[in-house]
Amino acid sequence: MRLFASGRAALPFLALAMAAPLAAEPGLPDEAAVAGALIDHPAVAAARERLAASRAGADARAVGPHEVTVSGSYNRRTIDREGTFDEFDTQLTRAIRLPGKARLDREIGVYAVDAAENMAEDVRHQAALLLASYWWDWLGAAAEAEVDRQAVTNYEQALAAVTRRVELGDAPQLEADQARAALGAARIRAEQSTGRADLAQARLRAQFPSLPLPVDAPAIPPPAMREAELAGYRDQIIANSHEIAVAEAEARRAAAYADRLRLDRVADPSVGIRLFSERGGAEQGAGLVFSMPLGGRHRSALADEAGSSASAALAEERLARFAVEETASADLAEARFRLSAWERARESLAAQMEVLVKLRRGNELGEIGLADMLLGERLVHDAFNAEVVARTDAQRAITKLRIDAHELWLRD
């Protein structure tokens, strides 16, 4: 592939940029490989364990905190003129949840699990966004590096041609110096873009070591998406948001917890049985025991605290909806303007290429100096880079829009 080439056979790179969109997730890693990489990510693994912990906590709440308590005592008592006696007593007691408390405990557990499930899915969502960001960082930098390397080749050819003309006495030494300077600047840009590509690939490998990467970065396909598709994704983002689901579950859990503490102003009573033996067995008996804490200001304060927390959770639910709607609108707006910017970049590249063809022809005829032609080469080089950056940004925006809508990588 030659960039900045002249003639009708020129511009295969531009032809790629102008081509029709490819099919079946072009430019993206294999979906099965992405699924495995997301499952293996430590953040996702930690979220799975937090979900397991939440389920265990819900089971504990459903069973309740009260357990059977066994207590007892043994005494050896001596009575004057009567003798020594062995005496003991044993007591089994258990607190009992008052009506309504067990139901609320189960509800609290259900809402906590619901929140944890959605949190786990949101963590996977964030991991997918991170993978997409690093992926397009790599592809974008690699595409820029390819443009810059081809520019170096073109400047090398230009320098060789000018040097030959200087040797033949057809051009001044100044033109060779100008070509050499342009080549040096192009080499600097190539080194920088190649380094950015290596850095981006290293970051991608570090965060997602189980994701298989090709030896060379795939080409970035032309982005394409109809307006109807773009607008539909906004509604999907809101409908499929795990952030809203988490906030709803947390608000319901906080409300149930506040109701639970209001009921807990009346403490759970403990009931049980007592067995005893006194005076060496001369006196034996059994009975029922009952105890109940008398709630005070402490329990009332805890109930008031939980009520305020529940109100705060409702406000946070509204805030989550605002944040998701903002994300949806921002994703849509960014995708639109990134696509538009890429269209303008393609138009600018085509115009710069037409100018360069004329500059080259004029230079061959001796009507245009080398400095003007080198300026045209640099402007075309910049235009190719601008098109690559715009294409990458458009694909990045579309990918984020699709991930946030759960249409890509998160369909399950």
From TrEMBL:
Belongs to the outer membrane factor (OMF) (TC 1.B.17) family. InterPro entries: MdtP/NodT-like, OMP_efflux. Residues 1-24 form the signal peptide. Gene3D superfamilies: Outer membrane efflux proteins (OEP). Transmembrane segments: none annotated. It comes from Aurantiacibacter flavus. Keywords: Signal. This is TolC family protein. The keyword Signal applies. The keyword ATP-binding does not apply.
